[in-house]
Design brief:
By secondary structure, the chain is mainly alpha-helical. α2 crosses α3, α2 packs across α4 and α6 packs antiparallel against α7.
């Protein structure tokens, strides 16, 4: 799938017109039209990020879907704490609470809670 096809697919899934996507991403409707038609060859990182955010996805999703590079294998992914720190604005305490919750669930905590109630 080409980059423009993926952008169009996500735009339609988000029920956006080209004009609405353009407005959200800070580009012209003509630019969105050319992107979707595969007529833009040098999209800037800044515009790619703006379009991805406007489509509720990531630049990586757009690039993976368009075949620019392969998705990393499980071994290549960062650990959860690193991922959360890089992709959210959560404070350290909240991240620690998430880690503790996952450890609790992994240790069988969910079944223990069900038995109590």
């Amino acid at each position: 799938m080409a980059l423009g096809e993926r952008i169009k697919e996500l735009r339609e899934l988000n029920n956006l017109t080209q004009a609405q996507l353009a407005s959200k991403a800070g580009v012209s409707p003509a630019y969105v039209s050319r992107l979707e038609a595969g007529q833009c060859y040098n999209i800037s990182i800044k515009v790619l990020v703006q379009i991805a955010r406007s489509l509720n996805t990531t630049p990586d999703d757009l690039l993976y879907s368009a075949g620019y590079y392969e998705r990393p294998s499980h071994e290549q992914l960062p650990d959860l704490t690193t991922y959360i720190r890089l992709t959210t604005k959560l404070d350290a305490q909240t991240i620690k609470e998430i880690e503790d919750f996952i450890a609790f669930k992994t240790a069988g905590g969910a079944s223990a809670v069900r038995r109590v109630g």
